[in-house]
Design brief:
Elements: E1 9-13, H1 18-27, E2 33-38, E3 56-60, H2 66-73, E4 78-81, H3 94-111, E5 116-120, H4 132-147, E6 152-156, E7 159-160, H5 167-176, E8 179-183, E9 187-190, E10 195-198, E11 204-205, E12 208-209, H6 210-220, E13 226-230, E14 236-237, H7 238-249, E15 254-258, H8 260-270, H9 280-285, H10 293-302, H11 309-312
Parallel strand pairs: 1-2, 1-4, 2-3, 4-5, 5-6, 6-13, 7-12, 8-15
Antiparallel strand pairs: 9-10, 11-14
Helix pairs in contact: 1-6, 2-3, 3-4, 5-7
């Protein structure tokens, strides 16, 4: 139990998603009021188990404008923004979700004199110059810092855990496919007439367990004016992550090298699907490794014995 948040009113935007649901369930262990603000009402509140009736409320917002946001955050002690998308569609753009909504939230938080605001961003977006996702995330961060400098911004690496869209995606692929893609391998460079192929090149990740992430969020939620990079204890490439997943299921699959230009071509056709497993913008994002020594150092300051993917993945896949 975190006695520092006992008795506080906590408002969460994006509380029904993967990270949000884990955060809410963690908060339910404490004596605090939790309001989840969502545009949809399809999620059942039964998923969240509070200490007492009414501890968790699911409230619907029709539109993210100043007037509506003000109604939901009045009297709040802490506001979390976990809203984010990995691909765009006709209803949701990166500009709206990652920039305009955070800007509106920060403005309302400032106007209503809310003391604590925690915004979830992403690792190394400042280094991803070609990704629309990364650029929109940076615009959102900058807007928040301009309007509410006392905010806490957390930039995690890839997050894994029960109900994630990362390890579970590859698990589902392994259910029907004999192949798993090593995106970004080989690296193709040109020196002279012939292209050079580097099959040792790997996209690198430093995955963080969702349980460690939400514990970190609760430990820093009362701080002011901080930006934290965050990463897990182990740097892993696609093939090492596949090994972890397949070993847990006692499976064998063939790892198929897929250079970035072919991945972009495949992503072009995937984008025609309602829920694309890969987009061209995600491929561009993969050009920058999601790793950070500082991120792991930040995690260790607040979380004892952070969990690796290998130690956790068998518990949920």
């Amino acid at each position: 139990m975190n006695f520092k948040i006992s008795g506080k009113k906590i408002v969460i935007f994006g509380g029904t998603g993967f990270i949000g649901s884990h955060l809410v369930n963690n908060l339910c262990k404490n004596a605090c009021q939790v309001d989840i603000i969502t545009r949809g009402n399809k999620k059942k509140l039964d998923f969240f188990i509070g200490n007492e009736p009414g501890q968790v409320r699911l409230l619907k917002i029709e539109k993210f404008n100043s007037e509506n946001i003000d109604k939901f955050i009045v009297g709040a002690d802490i506001v979390f923004n976990l809203i984010g998308i990995l691909y765009q569609n006709k209803k949701n753009s990166f500009e709206d979700i990652h920039f305009r909504i955070p800007r509106e939230l920060a403005a309302s938080i400032k106007k209503n004199k809310i003391r604590n605001f925690v915004h979830l961003s992403a690792l190394n977006i400042d280094k991803s110059k070609d990704s629309d996702y990364a650029k929109s995330k940076m615009k959102g961060e900058n807007a928040i810092k301009d309007l509410f400098p006392n905010s806490v911004i957390v930039r995690p690496s890839v997050v894994f855990g029960k109900r994630d869209g990362f390890t579970n995606l590859f698990l589902k692929m392994s259910n029907f496919s004999p192949f798993l893609p090593l995106i970004g391998t080989p690296e193709i460079s040109k020196k002279g007439v012939l292209p050079l192929l580097d099959f040792q090149k790997r996209v690198q990740f430093q995955p963080i367990y969702v349980g460690d992430l939400v514990s970190f969020l609760l430990k820093v939620c009362l701080l002011k004016k901080h930006t934290f990079e965050l990463a897990g204890p182990t740097v892993q490439s696609f093939d090492q992550i596949f090994d972890t997943i397949l070993n847990a299921k006692k499976r064998k699959r063939i790892y198929l090298p897929l250079p970035f230009f072919l991945a972009k071509l495949m992503a072009f056709f995937f984008e025609l699907l309602p829920y694309p497993p890969l987009t061209r913008d995600q491929v561009r994002l993969l050009n920058v490794d999601s790793v950070s020594n500082k991120g792991f150092s930040n995690l260790k300051k607040f979380i004892k014995n952070p969990s690796s993917m290998k130690s956790i993945v068998e518990t949920y896949i």
